[in-house]
């Protein structure tokens, strides 16, 4: 599983305050903790700042890269912010988070998405919004993948977000995500499926329990990665154990290594 640490996001109150106050210690500490907990990418988002996104994104990227060698997920809908973030990126292959098939956003980001060597995360959204049905989401994903690859993007550097939406709004939404994962994988097995998984539990009590159950269901059906809180040791343990159970971890090597390092917990 590709683990994208989701915690450095300016929509979270403490992160927004840290960016406003240039609290480097707080941002650095959170980056280090996510790295040590097993995150493969560290997401960085300053989009809550309407006029100061560029300034805060640049500052945060520099602070994070000062304490971790993990690649970053550059999280912005704005072309200029994404271009700047990718230019600043130093460590390995970045994640381009994200592009949609909405006309304005597609026009703004398409060329950059093709030209960069980053993994491009495409969201199943078009000018009509987020479809409720899985087949419509698969159709949008197919269009994103086809147009990117025709323009020269390596298909192995394309990821699709099936778009996790709250179960509290519609109890079919969990199945919609699973069916979208299966549909995209059937058409394009080389493409990665990565989602912001915790959205599923929005509005429900005991959210972590819903998130954990949903994670197992999604992995079983082909999910390759998720934006999650890697500081949740039970969630990380469940992910690693599920991969071992699905024969994705030869001789349980990753499970045993994670247990010895303390990422897999006993209870």
N/C terminus separation? 21 Å
- Helicity, as a percent range: 40-55%
What value does the Rg take, in angstroms?
18 Å
Counting helices, strands and paired strands, the structural category is alpha/beta
Features:
267 residues, alpha/beta, TIM Barrel, 8-stranded parallel barrel, 10 helices, 8 strands, 47% helix
Structural description of this entry:
With 267 residues, the protein is of the alpha/beta class. It folds into two domains: 2-229, TIM Barrel (Alpha-Beta Barrel), CATH 3.20.20; 232-267, no CATH class. Helices cover 47% and strands 16% of the residues. It contains ten helices and eight strands. The chain has helices at 13-21, 24-36, 53-65, 79-88, 103-115, 134-150, 173-187, 207-220, 233-245, 253-261; strands at residues 2-9, 41-45, 72-75, 95-101, 119-126, 158-161, 192-195, 225-228. It has an eight-stranded parallel β-barrel with strand order 1-2-3-4-5-6-7-8, surrounded by six helices. Helix 4 links the parallel strand 3 and strand 4 (95-101). Helix 3 packs parallel to helix 4 and helix 8 (207-220) runs parallel beside helix 9 (233-245).
Can you give me a brief rundown of this structure?
The protein is an alpha/beta fold and 267 residues long.
